[in-house]
Write a structure and sequence with these properties.
24 strands, five-stranded mixed β-sheet, about 550 residues, 3 domains, alpha/beta, 19 helices, Diaminopimelate Epimerase, Chain A, domain 1, Urease, subunit C, domain 1, TIM Barrel, seven-stranded mixed β-sheet
């Protein structure tokens, strides 16, 4: 547990941080009278914190930190509130979400179906006539009190003059009659590969389309793309939405339905110094069968680490080759093609991340990693495996030996009853958080939002701590439940490791980047069931306030606009 830092420790920190030349420079901002979770090596708690030139200048008592203020210093009274290092989602499709955010309707955190349908109804009021209303995922029927999906009649009644599309994970999508007409779907043969129309008991289509990931991805790709201005606006709005939850950094693995040209919105905001979240991104393989050529072309003038503190290139993945993506039975030819791309990445000094779901088949991937490691040591490259919620001790030990990290998300929070029944015994250790910690496997926290999960990091943190699904079913055993502090470290310092930033982000200590969130409630003492309700009242990135709500709303950068 956290302990208050002793006075000698604080004075020593201040003495180091403020040599004679530094004392002549007042802090830009000081936050006083709070509970600062520094996440330093001794888990100390401070009362106050000083920020100068985008970095943490010092922590200590309110009296000591107040002495570092000058006439122009901004002084923020925390009134006892908890401050944590800025959260970092180590696996979130934020770029794709931002591109479409201005044109989509979110059902995240809606607790009733009526509320969800009301959001479509409200969006229809402001949308241009005939434009699509799209719910792209991040919800489950279990979050609604009625515990069921919406019907075609219900979404049509909510927006009768608009085509409507509602996606449920990568398994199904619901379209209104206008939506089906706009996409030219009148029979099963009109649906992308492996898709079919669901039907009522009388045999008539009910508006739902079922299929696999390829089907739903292809179906979504037929929806109209946002205009450039909408993509820029949406990206800015989504970044601010992340700031609302104290998120100050993301690691983005690209993803389906995100063409290279669509990164322009992100780069536009970066060039204009309008990014409010630090984005570290990798490149997702664009085309099946030409992965190596495409990666070589796209990175010809993009060496590993290109960028700055706000936007930086971080290698390739989570799809490295299509034949090793969501494939539990890869052939020797598939593995050889993957080896060639991964070997090239290693030779270029690139970080690489791989989407892999099932432990029963991950030996195929680890075999290739070990083959490459015999030629080029991959530990310094920070390679990682995303998902793998059922990782065995053996798999984690192999990853540890290679220096490969594990990107862990809360996808099982939305697990359905059939899945829980089928894998009841395994669920007691899924995901094996404490086992990975004990073995020393680098672990990052995240969500895999927004098609699958909510982007709210406090939903993920609560799930890490209680193991309960959205409908309250207990799964993970206490043996795999981390402490609150350990979970927070996974979501800060743990995630920072994958961005090669653990020495600059993830704690509130002198010299670190001043990324932090002032919380609406005390994460360490609030009842476990209420952790998901926490928001950030003030979020700072590099010493700059990027989001503020009451009682700090006057400090919000958008105040008065």
């Amino acid at each position: 547990m956290f302990e208050r830092a002793t006075i000698p420790t604080i004075l020593f920190t201040l003495a180091i941080a403020f040599a004679a030349p530094a004392r002549a420079q007042p802090a830009d901002t000081v936050l006083l009278n709070g509970r600062i979770a520094t996440l330093d090596a001794s888990s100390s708690i401070a009362e106050a914190i000083a920020v100068r030139d985008g970095r943490i200048a010092a922590t200590g008592s309110s009296e000591q930190i107040r002495g570092l203020a000058g006439p122009q210093t901004r002084i923020v009274d925390l009134a006892g509130r908890t401050v944590i290092p800025g959260l970092i989602d180590s696996h979130i499709h934020a770029i794709r979400a931002g591109v479409r955010y201005a044109n989509e309707v979110s059902w995240i955190d809606a607790t009733t179906l009526a509320e969800a349908l009301g959001r479509i109804r409200a969006a229809a009021v402001y949308a241009r006539p005939g434009t699509w209303l799209i719910v792209a995922g991040g919800w489950t029927p279990q979050q609604f009190a009625v515990g069921r999906r919406p019907s075609q009649d219900e979404i049509t009644a909510a927006a009768p003059e608009h085509p409507v599309y509602v996606q449920l994970f990568y398994r199904a999508a619901l379209l209104s009659p206008k939506g089906l007409e706009a996409l030219g779907i009148a029979r099963d043969e009109d649906i992308p590969p492996n898709g079919k129309r669901d039907r009522h008991e009388d045999g008539s289509p009910n508006g739902w389309i079922s299929g696999d990931s390829a089907t739903i991805t292809a179906l979504y790709s037929r929806l109209p793309k946002p205009q450039r201005s909408e993509s820029i606006e949406g990206t800015a709005r989504f970044m601010r939405e992340l700031n609302r939850f104290g998120l100050t950094g993301v690691i983005d693995p690209g993803g389906h339905n995100l063409a290279p040209a669509e990164y322009e919105a992100l780069f536009r905001l970066w060039r204009e110094h309008r990014l409010t979240v630090r984005v570290v991104y990798s490149i997702f393989a664009p085309r099946r069968g030409s992965e190596l050529d495409d990666f070589q072309t796209l990175t010809r003038f993009l060496p590993m680490g290109t960028g700055d503190d706000m936007l930086r290139f971080n290698g390739i993945g989570e799809c490295v080759t299509w034949d090793m993506y969501n494939n539990d039975t890869p052939s020797e030819a598939h593995k050889e093609a993957f080896y060639r791309v991964a070997r090239w990445a290693a030779a270029q000094g690139m970080t690489l991340t791989v989407h892999w779901n099932n432990n029963r088949s991950v030996h195929h991937l680890l075999d290739v990693f070990e083959r490459i490691d015999r030629e080029t040591r991959i530990a310094p490259l920070r390679w990682s495996i995303a998902h793998l919620a059922d990782a065995s001790d053996e798999s984690l030990e192999r990853m540890k030996a290679l220096g490969v990290g594990w990107l862990m998300q809360d996808g099982l929070y939305f697990a359905g009853h059939p899945f829980l029944i089928e894998r009841a015994a395994q669920m007691r250790r899924m995901p094996p958080i404490r086992t990975a910690q004990a073995l020393g496997v680098p672990t990052g926290g995240g969500t895999d939002a927004n098609r699958v999960m909510s982007h709210n990091p406090f939903v993920s943190l609560r799930w890490m701590l209680d193991g309960k699904t959205v409908d309250g079913i207990e799964t993970r055993s206490p043996n795999e439940i981390p402490s609150r502090e350990d979970a927070l470290r996974i979501y800060t310092q743990g995630s920072a490791w994958f961005a090669h930033d653990e020495k600059r982000r993830g704690s509130l200590t002198a010299g670190q980047l001043a990324d932090l969130g002032v919380l609406s409630d005390n994460y360490f003492t609030v009842p476990l069931s209420r952790i998901a309700e926490i928001k950030s009242l003030l979020t700072m990135v590099g010493g700059r306030i990027v989001y503020a709500a009451e009682p700090y709303a006057s400090l919000d950068p958008g105040a008065g606009k």
